[in-house]
Design a protein that fits this description.
The chain has 364 residues and is an alpha/beta fold. The chain has 8 helices and 17 strands. The chain has a 9-stranded mixed sheet, with helices on both faces. Strands 10-17-16-13-14 form a 5-stranded mixed sheet, with no helix packed on it. It has a 3-stranded antiparallel sheet with strand order 11-12-15, with no helix packed on it.
């Protein structure tokens, strides 16, 4: 495993106060990776106006009704001869944690992985259009730069292939993937689940080879469930809930860019996990390396209702994080007048990072 997070933690302890860490990552704990999560969930299908994509057959979208958009999203496809209900438990789980989920069927139950990868990409196009559909409950609520894909068996192989075909995909969760002669040259962070006793896609012939075929430069994690069969990861309850906790943390970390999930993975979920017969990993992550404000810059007004002004003569880059460490806005500030508009966000505490400095801002 790449140990960048250890160095980051050491630097963090020397450069920041515990109060800053708590403020950034409050609420990001293993105990909060529950099934279901904190949000209420609703569904919609083609009968509700959802696009009927040509490369898949039928879809159900699960979405949070009381979360805070914009939401990340994931598309999921089942395996060979299987239908949506084989993986449907992932839909309400992800959605209850703020991740919009579309689960699709295939044009043929006998579609091979490549066709399933194309189907996943088509499902993401449906979400893009849903983000613009005037009478959709998700109009303007999706972050179309934060899409992930997942699938079971041949669908898992298809999810890996989708990442090769579409380099905008931000993350992959492969559920006991089946794919021969794997060509997986992509840079989408990938989590691969496998079952130790899987007779359909034996890890030595599939998941392990997929892990090895994914470039070393790509963040990747292989988690083999002890005594697991081919459907061990078909629900977030697999491995007594480990499947859901790992998948959710992976998507939050790499798709939503919430670094608070780094230590949750490395120090909690992957520290001698009881559900695993084997774990392989090669991924980089780090805590929010937020230095205390050195007063080289200042922000006003604070508290604010909308616009904050950045008082610095230099051109700077900025990132805005929610109170639980989720990246909600980023950009560059140039010229004499430097402002950040927070009017689209709800009331609360935000952390504005200007280059390597952090300032707490209250929006009211």
């Amino acid at each position: 495993m790449k140990k960048l997070y250890s160095l980051a933690l050491l630097l963090l302890l020397t450069l920041t106060t515990p109060a800053v860490i708590v403020a950034q990552c409050e609420g990001v704990t293993e105990a909060n990776l529950t099934n279901p999560g904190p949000f209420e969930v609703a569904t919609m299908t083609e009968d509700d106006g959802l696009r009927d994509g040509p490369d898949y057959f039928g879809a159900t979208v699960y979405y949070p009704t009381n979360g805070t958009p914009p939401y990340s999203s994931i598309a999921i496809v089942p395996g060979f001869t299987a239908e949506q209900d084989s993986v449907e438990e992932w839909g309400p789980f992800y959605a209850s944690h703020g991740i919009v989920t579309i689960i699709i069927g295939t044009n043929s139950l006998f579609d091979f992985p490549e066709a399933r990868g194309v189907a996943l990409i088509d499902a993401l196009e449906t979400l893009r259009q849903e983000n613009e559909r005037a009478d959709s409950p998700l109009e303007g609520a999706l972050d179309i730069d934060k899409f992930a894909v997942s699938g079971w068996s041949m669908g898992g192989g298809g999810a890996q292939r989708a990442a090769v075909l579409d380099n905008t995909i931000k993350g992959v969760v492969a559920l006991c993937p089946w794919l021969t002669n794997a060509e997986l040259d992509h840079d989408s962070p990938v989590l691969i689940f496998s079952g130790q006793n899987d007779p359909t896609a034996p890890p030595a012939q599939h998941a392990n080879l997929h892990y090895n075929a994914t470039p070393e430069t790509t963040n990747k994690l292989l988690f083999e469930f002890e005594n697991g069969n081919h459907s061990v990861a078909n629900t977030p309850n697999g491995g007594n809930g480990v499947a859901g906790k790992l998948a959710l943390s992976w998507l939050k970390l790499y798709v939503e860019e919430n670094d608070c999930y780094c230590p949750l993975l490395t120090d909690n979920l992957l520290d001698n996990p009881p559900a695993a017969s084997m774990v392989q990993s090669s991924f980089e992550c780090e805590l929010l390396g937020l230095e205390e404000n050195k007063y080289d810059v200042s922000i006003f007004p604070n508290p604010t209702k909308s616009i904050i002004n950045i008082n610095t003569l230099s051109d700077v880059n900025y990132k805005v994080y929610s109170s639980i460490g989720q990246l909600v806005l980023k950009g560059a500030l140039t010229g004499y007048t430097k402002q950040i508009d927070l009017s689209a966000f709800s009331k609360g505490i935000y952390h504005v990072r200007i280059n390597d400095e952090i300032i707490k801002v209250i929006k009211n």
